[in-house]
Amino acid sequence: GGGGGVGRTELLQLVVQLYRHIREGNSNGLQVAAPTGVAVAVCGGVPMHVYLRLRAGFLHETLSEMDDAKRIYKAMEGGTRCKLAHTALVLVDEVSIVSSRMLTTL
Questions:
Q1: Which of 7, 47, 77, 78 is deepest in the core (most CB within 10 A)?
Q2: d(C-alpha 58, C-alpha 49), whole Å
Q3: C-alpha span between 5 and 8 (Å, rounded)
Q4: What does pTM read for this prediction?
């Protein structure tokens, strides 16, 4: 928590460095994502919908969060499912502005 400039993104970047160090320079299994373009630019990650390989606006508010997540997973291509299965750690910058629906999907 806390206001802007308290170091959350710097902490995220330190975690990325530590992950790579522990894995001897290999960052396989690590994904950094963010909900906004500004956050993506700052943290060096990708937009969350790009990480999931889905178009923006893919969430359906008329379904329960779990049913929506199941619908999205069923619609994913095999390569995306494989990528998700091999992801050990997802770091989300600016997580406080991510909806619970998006987190359920992740």
A1: 47
A2: 8
A3: 8
A4: 0.80
